[in-house]
Design goal:
The chain is of the alpha+beta class. It has one domain: Alpha-Beta Plaits. The chain has six helices and seven strands. A four-stranded antiparallel sheet has the order 3-4-2-5. A three-stranded antiparallel sheet has the order 6-1-7. Helix 1 runs antiparallel to helix 3. It is elongated and about 60 Å long.
Amino acid sequence: MKITPGRVTHQYDEELVVFHIGMTFNRWWRPDLWLPVFFAMPAMMRELAEDPDSGLLGYEFLFNRRGPFAVQYWSSVDKLYAYASAGSLSHRPAWTKFNAMARKHPEAVGVWHETFVVERAESMFVGTPAMGLPKATKTVPVEKRHHRARTRLADGATALPSSAEDRLCQAG
C-alpha cells in the first residue's frame, strides 16, 4: 500500500452520511448460517462501487471481536435508503434471505447498522495509506492554520447543505 506522506485531511462540501453496518457471529460453530451473510456484503459493495450514481463515496471493511463490519460514506441519506429498498439490486434479496434464516435460527447470526447524517467533520491522517474520509472524498494537505483538530472542526470541513438541514428540521 502506498503511504501518503505528510499531514492530510479531507475536503467535502456536500451532504455526508456515515453508515456502519455489520454482523455478529453469535454461533461461530455454525458457518453454514453465517457464511452466506458474511459473503453478501462484499458483493453489495462491488455492485455499489461499479455504479458512480449509487451515492456510495467509499468504504472500509473492519473486524471487531464480534465480527466484521463496514464503515460506508454516502453522498445522501436518500441514496442510501434507495439502495436498501431497491428490489432489483443485491441488498433487498439478501435481506429477505437473512430474515428467513433468522426466523429459523434466531440466535445464530446478528446484523446491525447505524446511520449518521454529518453536519461537520474533521479528519487527520499522517503517514498512512489512503483511507477513511480522505479516501472517500478528496485528500488535501493540512494547511498551516488547520494544524489543530479544533480549528479544522470549527471551519467545518464537511458542511450540511441547506436542503439536508431542512430535512433534518422537518424530521425533528
